[in-house]
């Protein structure tokens, strides 16, 4: 397995070096369709709640792999559809829709337009269950040749949720995790500061100054985009946040070893929370996966979609998925 991972990394690096300049270019100004979808989910208390997602696509949905996107803390589906600023397009969802994917960007339970309930009850297990139920509902209601291939794409805490969902339920044919490390590592924030947020109540707000400092590499991001990000920041449930701190402290509890489908991981070299210096260790966190590739993005902080070099990462995901699921 380790030899296969090393060979895969060397081979993919060569392919990317040859293919990315052309792949990263836009495919044209065709309109992207955006549909608001609602999905019923039943949580552990036995009650039904609504999870909202936005579906992005071009043309027909037939024979389109669907990427189900899970955002990190303080975000909602808008992380995947950031606005154009100074002539730069920051929308991952629209980029992938133009490359013949169906893209479902979710508001996870307790975030965005999805129903809110007790923030202490909305924890990691509930989020993973909700993601699984959305995937199952998507398949159950699909027409022939629609949504036959599911891909989980998660960022930061969303990657943690995708990992749990795939390990427990196995709905997806491939998993892409960005800005998340299962490998043990340290973060440059005093634990007492992180724990103090738990005192806010069932729904937690992270200050913009802290978000900006931890999420962005200022030399390679637009301050207008950072300001927009902080102005539109969402809250996070205390249950989810508490479980996130637990998994960061005890990563051995994360069931990444139970994932058997292809896994791609992207890590930023300037990401303070999940640095690319742990790439080799992270590749070993998926011992049962049939294929693992860890990709390093240069000049990139934690919020991958908000940095100038984002197209490099998007094009790499597109290329990798074209090799493993198409």
UniProtKB/TrEMBL annotation:
GO terms for molecular function: hydrolase activity. The keyword Iron does not apply. Keywords: Hydrolase, Signal. SUPFAM superfamilies: alpha/beta-Hydrolases (SSF53474). It holds the Pfam family Abhydrolase_6. Residues 1-24 form the signal peptide. Residues 68-306 form the AB hydrolase-1 domain. It comes from the Bacteria. The keyword Hydrolase applies. This is Alpha/beta fold hydrolase. It comes from Archangium lansingense.
């Amino acid at each position: 397995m380790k030899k296969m991972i090393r060979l895969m990394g060397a081979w993919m690096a060569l392919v990317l070096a040859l293919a990315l300049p052309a792949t990263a270019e836009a495919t044209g100004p065709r309109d992207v369709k955006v549909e608001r979808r609602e999905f019923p989910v039943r949580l552990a208390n036995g009650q039904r709640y609504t999870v909202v997602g936005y579906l992005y696509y071009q043309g027909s949905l037939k024979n389109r792999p669907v990427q189900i996107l899970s955002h990190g803390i303080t975000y909602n589906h808008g992380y995947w559809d950031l606005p154009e600023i100074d002539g730069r397009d920051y929308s991952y969802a629209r980029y992938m829709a133009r490359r013949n994917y169906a893209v479902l960007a979710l508001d996870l339970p307790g975030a965005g337009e999805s129903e809110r309930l007790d923030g202490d009850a909305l924890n990691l297990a509930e989020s993973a269950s909700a993601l699984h139920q959305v995937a199952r509902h998507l398949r159950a209601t699909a027409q022939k040749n629609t949504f036959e291939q599911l891909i989980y794409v998660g960022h930061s805490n969303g990657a943690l949720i995708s990992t749990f969902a795939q390990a427990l339920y196995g709905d997806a044919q491939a998993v892409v995790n960005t800005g998340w490390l299962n490998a043990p590592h340290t973060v440059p924030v005093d634990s007492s500061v992180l724990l103090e947020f738990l005192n806010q109540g069932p729904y937690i707000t992270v200050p913009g100054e802290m978000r900006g400092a931890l999420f962005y590499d200022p030399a390679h991001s637009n301050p207008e985009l950072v300001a927009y990000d902080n102005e539109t920041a969402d809250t996070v449930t205390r249950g989810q946040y508490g479980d996130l701190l637990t998994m960061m402290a005890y990563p051995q509890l994360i069931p990444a070893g139970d994932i058997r489908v292809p896994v791609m991981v992207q890590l930023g070299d300037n990401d303070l929370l999940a640095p690319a210096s742990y790439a080799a260790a992270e590749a070993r966190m998926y011992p049962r996966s049939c294929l693992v590739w860890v990709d390093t993005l240069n000049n990139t902080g934690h919020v991958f979609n908000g940095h100038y070099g984002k197209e490099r990462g998007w094009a790499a995901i597109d290329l990798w998925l074209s090799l493993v699921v198409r």
